[in-house]
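As the work plan foresaw, our protein records have gained a structure token line. A representative record is set out beneath this paragraph:
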Amino acid sequence: DLQLLKSVARGDRQALTRLYRRYHGPLLRFVQRLTGDIETANEAVNDVMLVVWNRADSFGGRSKVSTWIMGIAYRKAMKLSSRMQRWTQRFKAADWSEVVERSQALEGLTKELIERDLMYRAIQQLPEKQRAVVELTYYFGYTYDEIAEIVDCPANTVKTRVFHARARLKKLLPEMGHDTHE
């Protein structure tokens, strides 16, 4: 990644294309989960890669390239999320017991898929900053120190956000029809 970024800094479009292909999926997923909108996420990923193209020479090497790129994505998503409020209406709590009953009635739908859907929807109800650290920790595997770099806050703040997010999820999941004791 570092060699690709250095090549991008020299104006190598093929290197940018390789970085884009490497990071498109993870960035899209991350930004979509933060903003709640796939179209917005697609635009944001393109914006992130434009920043990478224009600012590759500013990478200081104090972190991994992936941490730097995810940091750009995080800031872009936070800006977009603060401008749009429509995602809150789509992911507000609903009668989840009815959703689970209907889902279980569908042939071939497994308990794992239902739980994954409930977890996704529960995570969407977390405050943005908590949602971001949960995503980066559990879905992307970043360390607290790397997340601190991405979201530009101390590692202890990241730990606190994860703690509060987990506590909130433990409360939300039973309300949504998920037994947390299984």
Notes: The mean pLDDT is 79. The two ends are 41 Å apart (CA to CA).
